[in-house]
Every structure is written in C-alpha cells, then in structure tokens.
Write a structure and sequence with these properties.
about 400 residues, alpha/beta, Carbamate kinase, eight-stranded mixed sheet, four-stranded antiparallel sheet, about 25% strand, binds aspartic acid, binds magnesium ion
C-alpha cells in the first residue's frame, strides 16, 4: 500500500465528464489498496474569469479581496470531485485549504506555505476516505484566505506530498510529460522519460510552463518523488523527476530548451564607472518589489559604463519611471531606454558539466541563421540568450535540431 497524492490541473476538471474520468482513475488506484489524496485546480479558464470580474470593479484589485474571489474556483471543483467519487461508491471528503490548515504568510496573491497540519487528513485516510483538497489556496494566521500564485495548485500537491510523507506525487495535466521543448512550437519535440530535479528547476525558471517553479523547489527541498502525466490517457509513465543523474552514456548533453516572451530589457547608458553604481541603479528597483532577471554591465574605453537588465514586461514602465525620476539625475546617466520586443531562449542540461563547447555550438547555430544575441547569461547547467522576439521560433527550432533533441 502506498500513499499517493494526485494533482489534477484545470483541463482535467474542465467539465463533469472530465471529473468522472478523474474519479474512475482514483477508484482504480483505491482498488489497488492505495491511500489517495486528490488536489484539484479550478475548472480551466475559471481563475481568469474571476480575475477579469474583479477588475471590472477595481482595475488594480485589493489583494485580500482578490484572493477571496479567486480562491472560489477550487472550492467548486473539490465539491464536484467528491460527488463524483461518492457516486462511484467511494468514501470521499472535500477540504478547503483552511479546513486542512495549509498555513501561509499573508502575502496575498503570492503567499508562501509555512506549515501544513496533516492530522485531519491522516485520520480520514486511515478511515478509508479519499481526501480531495483545494489547490492554490491557504489561510494566514488570522484566518484570511490566501492564494499561492498562478499555477499554485502544483505547489499544494507537492507540499501535501511532503507533509504527508507520500510515496509519490503525480501531477496530471493535458500533456503526457515534460518535453524537450514546447511541442506546439516544435512538432518534433520528444517526451523525456526522466529529467533531473535541477534541470526541471532551470526549465521552470526559464519559462517552461509544465510545473510551477515553487512546486519544483518544494520537491527538491523535501525530496518528493514527482511524476508528470496526462489525465487524458489511461496508460503511460509520463516523466519522472529524478534526484540522480542517470549513468547513461547515451544521455544527451542538452535535455531541453525553454523560452520566455515575458521579459523586457532596460538599458542605462553612459553611467560614470565608480563603486556603488549597480546598487544605485538596482536598489530602488528592488525596493519597489520589481524582480530583476539578467544583468549585464560593460565598461567602455571612455570610462563610462552601460548597464542592462531584464524585468517582467508588465513592470517595464514602472522600472523606467523609477529610474528616470529617482536615479538618472543622481548618477548622471546619459540615456535610459526600454525594449519589450525581446525573448529569452535557454538550453538546459546537466551534461554541460562534463562537455565543453556547448556555448560556442549554441552561438554558432544562432549566427548561421543571422540571429543577433543581445544578452547572455549562464549557470553550470544552462545557457540563456536574449534575442529579438521575432526570431524566437526560429531560434528554438534550429537549436532543437542542432542539439539533436528530435524523436529518434
Ligand atoms: N486555478 C489557479 C490558476 O489558474 C491555480 C492552478 O491552476 O494551479 O492559476
Ligand atoms: Mg496549472
């Protein structure tokens, strides 16, 4: 007997028929003698609908009230899922985040889980119930409803698996695993049987949407055995997120390519090159809670320096006005500009540790297509470049081919 957490995303609970199919899968696992915790998202499109509704009344909705509204999608699906299970003759009980006691901080709309009370769930599991838990939501110390950020049901699933010491956390979605890149962009993309936790973390942080990044961080921290599977198929092993690198000579150097259209580039030109400049530019940006991703600084022959960094597209204007109002005059920068017509492409693979020449192969491949690289950043297992957004698809396709990631 194993304890398994099964998380189902929005397309897996999109309508009564999908929920019935989910319930039949849970029934099969139950019949094998396993204990099952089900975590569900809202029906697909529902969270977006609720956000739009809130914005009709207040363009920048109050965060506490927004969480009150957008947490309701999951309250509907836990009830429906429990009904579908009961209808199949299975003992089932639904739980909101507050009923489990998924305790979070009070950072509304992006709260972090601080503790999970596993007492009630354990008692019900031992009494033979399937526990159906609302994803995405928690409760703060004062009883306020919080949410965990878009895609946060993945994190609920993994966090529950960690708290309950589950044998496996299965993430059911509308794709049958993690692919070498998005198959909608590159039809030759191949499903990976397994991928290391570190690679998954890089792919998620570089724009792959398969798993919410916080869920991957959680899985890493608590060593949760995680598998991504399709809820549209009866069979299939999906993709296992592993903690060991396979000792496999055939293992390709690059495991996957991620991309991201959400960033914008900000350039501060002609800054006097002296200590404290980076801090004077980025300090006010950080204080305004704007996340910075890539950073480049280059000193020219004339003793001034150019400073470039990327932020989320939605925050470009905010960052530009902070720099123009508070920083430019102060540091004596010649010019400040923003560009949101960029895209980031990243190749990821633990094989980079033991192979040389990967960066030059990447740069040559892009050069052969006449694609200009605007920024570069690297980690031990990743190389990311910023290019003009109109070359994004081409870049991903030629890199996918150059690193031989297609279906064999
Ligand atoms: N329903 C939430 C969202 O759409 C959480 C989730 O689906 O994971 O972001
Ligand atoms: Mg999701």
């Amino acid at each position: 007997m194993a304890l398994i957490v099964q998380k189902y995303g929005g397309t897996s609970v999109a309508n009564p028929e999908r929920i019935r199919s989910l319930a039949r899968r849970v029934a099969r696992y139950k019949a094998m003698g396993h204990q099952i915790v089900v975590v569900v998202s809202a029906m697909s499109g529902e969270t977006n609908r609720l956000i739009a509704l809130a914005k009709e009344l207040m363009p920048e909705p109050d965060p506490r009230e927004l969480d009150m509204i957008i947490s309701t999608g999951e309250q509907v699906t836990i009830g429906l899922t429990a009904l579908a299970l009961i209808e199949l003759g299975i003992k089932a009980k639904s739980y909101t985040g507050a009923q489990v006691k998924i305790l979070t901080d009070n950072a509304f709309t992006k709260a972090r889980i601080s503790n999970i009370d596993q007492h009630n769930l354990k008692a019900d599991l031992d009494a033979g119930y399937v526990c159906v838990v609302a994803g995405f939501q928690g409760v703060d110390e004062n009883g306020n409803i919080t949410t965990l950020g878009r895609g946060g049901s993945d994190t609920t699933g993994v966090a529950l698996a960690a708290a309950l010491n589950a044998d496996e956390c299965q993430i059911y979605t509308d794709v049958d695993g993690v692919y070498t890149t998005d198959p909608r962009m590159v039809p030759e993309a191949r499903r990976l049987k397994s991928i290391t936790f570190e690679e998954m973390l890089e792919l998620a942080s570089q724009g792959s949407k398969v798993l919410q990044i916080r869920s991957v961080e959680f899985a890493g921290k608590y060593k949760v055995k995680l598998r991504v599977l399709s809820s549209f198929e009866e069979e299939g092993d999906g993709t296992l997120i592993t903690f060991e690198e396979e000792d496999n000579m055939e293992q390709p150097v690059i495991s996957g390519i991620a991309f991201n259209r959400d960033e914008a580039k900000i350039t501060v030109l002609g800054v006097p090159d002296k200590p404290g400049i980076a801090y004077q530019i980025l300090g006010p940006i950080a204080e305004a809670n704007v996340d910075v991703d890539m950073i480049i600084q280059n000193t020219g022959a004339d003793g001034t320096t150019d400073f470039t960094f990327t932020v989320h597209k939605n925050e470009m204007n905010k960052a530009l006005s902070i720099l123009r109002d508070k920083v430019q005059g102060h540091i004596g920068a010649r010019e400040i500009s923003g560009d949101d017509k960029i895209a980031k492409v990243s190749i990821v693979g633990v094989g980079m540790r033991s192979h040389v020449g990967i960066a030059s192969q990447m740069f040559r491949t892009l050069a052969e297509e006449g694609i200009n690289i605007q920024m570069i950043s690297t980690s031990e297992i990743k190389i990311a470049v910023v290019v003009d957004e109109k070359y994004l698809e081409l870049a991903v396709r030629v890199l996918h081919k150059a690193f031989e990631l297609e279906e064999a």
